[in-house]
Description:
Elements: E1 5-11, E2 23-27, E3 33-35, E4 38-40, E5 43-47, E6 56-58, E7 68-78, E8 84-89, E9 95-103, E10 108-116, E11 119-127, E12 137-144, E13 148-155, E14 158-166, E15 178-182, E16 187-197, E17 205-209, H1 211-214, H2 225-233, E18 238-242, H3 255-261, E19 267-271, H4 279-295, E20 299-303, H5 314-328, E21 332-334, H6 336-340, H7 361-374
Amino acid sequence: MKKQVYLMWMLLFFHAGVIAQKYVLEKGIDKLQLVGCNIRNKSIIISGTGDIQRNRAFFPSETTLEEIEQVFNITIVSYDKGAIRFGIGKQSKLAGTLVDFAGNDTSSKVVVNRVNEKQVIPVREFELPFALAIGHQYKIRVAKKIRHLIVEISSGNYYFKNDTLQYPTPFFGLLWGSPFIACHSGKIEINGFVLKTSFKRNPLIAVWGDSFIEGSSLASEEERYISFLKSSLGYRKIVILGRGGESSTSLDKRYPKELEWFKRTKYALIAIGTNDSDFDVWKSNMTKYISMAEKLHVKPIIVTITPRYDIAGRVPFMQMVNRWIREEYNGLYVDMNKAVTLDGERWIEGLLLADKVHPSAAGHLAMFERIKMDAPFLF
Length: 379
């Protein structure tokens, strides 16, 4: 019985759009932190033990960038019965989209899976035109968007590319995390690492936010107010960085690095506060994010927050946040609260989803119209 070798990409999040020239965000294996592996002769050696969380090299920052890709140069050192997995994923648990490269010394295949913690559900499978061989170095690229996945492999005269992978459901893979390469079993040697995007490094505006920006509560990501803005400004002029559940405190895990990547943007829209509850904490965090942008000569634009009816006693916090933005901040802001409420506390009928937290598609459209009113300089 032949031993098997498995290579798996763990990939999360992204957004559909036209493929453009790729821009390097990070480059070099020295950018990666190591767990259960080591560096030998300027290469990272990962031996699998059956648990990819314990055998991985990862980029030490989370990101929600909607278009991102990784390129790894790897050499297969040895086969094993288990698996070798690498890609973009959460550091806490396996979730999202998993691309599994599986094979032996005569044939190999690629399996695209949907993953929810420990449950792996295959959704697409196709054969590679060559076998993954011990001692060969492979350049493996995976570029991922919300509904589109590109897989590319090359080694000498061997080459394979598939750019026809469409996701079966909306938002499949629209998750956030830290880029990593992991090994389940067998052994690989990592000789190169590049993290790229097809977004410009100097867009007109970069947008940070929570589920309102991610849009996971909607039937289509095209219904987000930020998608309306993208359509209006042009695809190349906006970078979207949203994650459901984000608070002003959790944003710190990714904002500094993402701001560094897009420090040549003219504006930074920071839409955070829906998931906060302590005004002093929110103000301290927001003031820090504003200052970080201004030091890079990026103009911050912040937004007022909207009512949510699933948390008791929410109104006083919301009022303090919005009062500070309107009366004390003295900077650029968009009054999203006024876009969707009658009196600052009650949503206009039809603009709120049944969860009593998120805007409906009509609510997002109203928010986009408010951007045009409060930030006409963007257009």
